Amino acid sequence: MNFEVCILGCSSAIPTAERGLSAQWLEIHHQHYLLDCGEGTQIRIRQEGLPLQRLSVIFISHAHADHFLGLPGLLSTMDLLGRKKELTIFCPESVQLFLEQYWNSVDFKPSFPITIDSSSWKSGGLIYSAKSLQVEAIPLKHAVPCRGFLFREIRDAFTLNKLKLAAFDLSIPQIIELKQGNDVCLSNGVWLSANQVGRAGPKVRSYAYLTDTRPVLQTLLKTSAPMVLYHESTFSEKHKDRAKKTQHSTAYEAAEIADKWGVSVLILGHYSVRYPNVNELLEEAKTKFNNTHLGFNGYRLQL
Ligand SMILES: [Zn+2]
Ligand SMILES: [Zn+2]
Q1: What would the pLDDT profile of 33-54 be if each residue is shown by its tens digit?
Q2: Which of the chain's ends, N or C, has fewer CB atoms near its CB within 10 Å?
Q3: Is residue 233 a contact partner of residue 249, using CB atoms and an 8 Å limit?
Q4: What is the 61 CA–ligand 1 centroid distance (Å)?
């Protein structure tokens, strides 16, 4: 089962020739998701050869133009191409109002079903679940209400062997416990471990997308760390005051979050246009968290 990330844009506020505005494409268990939709996202989707019409859910982090202004064009293109499949959009209420006012003003609305859910976005927590995936919305600290998104696979920790299980008189709740890797107490008082009747499955994969925000470590520590973290790094340390003033993070602060939360991999992005070369951001982050990578247009990662 696949779990893939493709960065479509990683510039903050102003796009450059090399860096599009915020957007990422996720393919998880053959379902397609879009994170943010800055202006030009539909062109980037084309350039990356991604299956636009198979997109099923869009998650918008907040109501700054560099994160949602690509929606009207993207949705129009889907309609022009004859889309019938439903699309769900999680976004702030102001983005919902923007889309409705836009469609009213041009007297055109895409004909395929679009569900816009701003109330789940606002309440946060678990906002989306599929058969084998859950998405949590995490409150961030930015100039306007903002959410990060944490994608986590749902998977049994242990694969049980039916022949070995048959040797014990187990209830369904006990089998569920064993699948989660927990020991159970048998009727004779003996403890049975998951290892005795099965083997540990592959690691649960997870991905967090956190932009735009000041560091929010205490909030993040309430949930277990993802395998891979994309964290905004708009500024370098020499512009730390600017990061605080504009409610963004430096690359070093992103690395501190990666280190203290306990992720395996950190990807940087949402770079200020003032850094044509972002290697200084990478170098600063690596002094705190070595497994840091620079996000860029077309960066792809298989988890
Ligand atoms: Zn932004
Ligand atoms: Zn912003």
Answers
A1: 999 999 999 999 999 999 999 9
A2: N
A3: yes
A4: 9
